[in-house]
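tool_call: predict_structure(chain=1)
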Amino acid sequence: MRRGRASRRTLLHAALAVGSLITISPAAAQAPEPHRLALQISDDDPVKMRAVLDVAANVSRHYSGQGEDVEIAVVAFNGGLDMLLDDRSPVKERLVNFLKSMPNVSFIACGNTLETLAAKEGRRPPLLEGVSVAQVGVAALMDLAEKNWTIVRP
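tool_result:
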């Protein structure tokens, strides 16, 4: 009789343990939200453009080293748009490498700045392949901030 009670008790404890794991596992299975960083570049200054790329690389390396995800968006407008232009980017080679090797980093060009350059130059300057366009660069930064992205201007 005692042996039966011990077995039942052991089975009950095992069932409770399994049940608690099942209850906990859905919450534990949820992946944590990735860190989100938006970098602003609005100056036609190669030093600042390199700084933006340095920050993106350093932040990406930091979080991946901790086993955490990070999404990074570089938003370029005004003079900073030159960074993303195929025919004049002073950081073209490095930026092309980013586009190939860092899928967590995206580059966004301001459509208004592109239109201004098109009117001034008689043609729309070509963007590097892989760069997306937001109609208003500053509004894109505001939208990201409202979605809890951290905005930094290196």
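agent: The chain has two domains: 1-30, 35-152. Proceeding to next step.
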